[in-house]
Amino acid sequence: MGGSRPPARIPLNWLQMTLAATPSQLAKYEVVIGLEVHVQLATQTKIFCGCPTSFGAPPNTNVCPVCLGLPGALPVMSKPAVEMAILGSLALNCRINPTSRMARKNYFYPDLPKGYQISQYELPLAEHGFVDVITDKGGKRIGVTRVHMEDDAGKSTHDGFKDSDRFTYVDLNRSGTPLIEIVSEPDMRSADEAYEYMTYVKQAMEFLEVSSCDMEKGHLRCDANVSVRLWGAEKFGTKVEIKNLNSFRFLKQAIEFEISRQVAVIEGGGTIIQETRLFNPDLGETLSMRSKEAAADYRYFPEPDLVPLQISESWRERLRASMPELPAHKRARYASQFGLSEYDAEVLTSSKDIGTYYEQAVAAGGDPKLTANWVMGDLMAALKAEGKEINASPIAAANLGNLVARIVSGELSGKLAKEIFPKMYAEGLPPGEIIERDGLKQISDTGAIEKIIDEVLAANPKQVEQYKGGKTTVIGFLVGQIMKATKGQANPGVVNDLLKSKLG
């Protein structure tokens, strides 16, 4: 038997992993979702010490006795971290508690050097907020239970596959980085609603510059609590937590898979276990990680080395007054001030940089609607092809606004503008310089255009006869020939007027 292999071990939750519910089964159940969103604050230093929070430093170099958890080291609360946490809470319409307290959350993990996390429990920074989102079914308000501050753990990197050569490397550069955790009410009823909620949170934090929300660097992470119950049932089903979702696509996929899995287990006569699961994007499945902890497992108690945090009304209101315009307000203003559609306003406020660029282009003379079309169309397409964000656009916002203004004034045709745009993108020059250099001025001189019209009509007698015989659609062909003869530089309005006059 020396060469035989032992039988493969089938995990206990194999049945739960592989089952999928049918559409008719899914229709019988209501989904209940709550999200816990972790946002890394954009401070220069850590929450309880002066170590930098910069990303990409060599492992274990941005550390000191405090964030290494060495005996005798004492934490000191960062004021910038508190102010960013308050701003984020106000953006979620939360009530800022005048007194909040840090607490020790006790658990062991290799990258948690203190053996506990400094967080908040009974007295969080903020509570009782809400977020209004737009879904396919209309508007919906999603409650925010609480926002609390905490420090982040380090990072573990696992290497190797066999037990004999498996290593785990611990980097404590991230240890002590300031976070806020945003806990929602279990108000979401679909993966789409969860997606929209996360989108709002991300946009709000970015607009406030509270966080970069760079999900690739772990600045925005999410845990999803998912349960199902029969329609009409009052009691919630057993919830399952899906940990560390670091992309919007994975959030939606994980929730949709978990809904189907839970319904299939229940319909098959099984029982949902309260547990923590991880999402495997390669398999498109959630996999069991461990049984779910309860609050008592963490043995919370007040942090003895930090005094309670006192937030005065004047401090809170000063921060509120400093807040920039948030995405929802900006969308409403774009609709009323610029006459944009709901879709256009949503696209142009999808990030703070896009909105800023658009408004600068309009301020430079661009018609609001036409400028929106150029930003969302030609510019976005060019940037996407090169993997660039709008703040790296080779075309300055004022230059794009100037190009649009020339179209509206009749100085440029749309066709000429399309020819000028790629040159602006490639060279970073304003449209006026390209027009002068390349001789791309629009021809509006009636004498010059009239001469070309006469030549085109003489060369196309058949189409002229068709037009005079009542086939007026042939005028499009004649206009095309004229524009071709002028290399697209003839003023279309002048061409149409003169052509119709000559054709009678």
First-residue to last-residue Cα separation: 101 Å
Number of helices in the DSSP assignment: 17
Structural class determined from secondary elements = alpha+beta
For the secondary structure, the number of strands is 16
Gross geometry: elongated
Strand content: 15-25%
Percent of residues in helices comes to 25-40%
Average of per-residue pLDDT values:
89
Largest sheet: 9 strands, mixed
Give the total of domains.
3
Q: Which spans have pLDDT < 50 for at least 5 consecutive residues?
A: 1-17
**Rg over alpha carbons:** 31 Å
Describe the structure.
The protein has 504 residues and is an alpha+beta fold. It has three domains: 14-313, no CATH class; 325-438, no CATH class; 446-503, Orthogonal Bundle (Arc Repressor Mutant, subunit A). The protein has helices at residues 14-18, 23-26, 79-91, 191-208, 248-267, 313-321, 327-338, 342-348, 352-363, 368-385, 397-409, 414-427, 431-438, 446-459, 461-468, 475-485, 492-503; strands at residues 29-40, 95-96, 99-100, 102-106, 116-120, 126-135, 138-151, 155-159, 167-171, 178-184, 220-230, 240-245, 275-280, 285-291, 301-302, 309-310. The strands form four sheets. The protein has a nine-stranded mixed beta sheet. A three-stranded antiparallel beta sheet has the order 5-4-15, with no helix packed on it. It has a two-stranded antiparallel sheet with strand order 3-16. A hairpin with a 7-residue loop joins strand 8 and strand 9. Helix 9 (352-363) crosses helix 11 and helix 16 crosses helix 17. The longest helix has 20 residues, at 248-267. The protein is elongated and about 95 Å long.
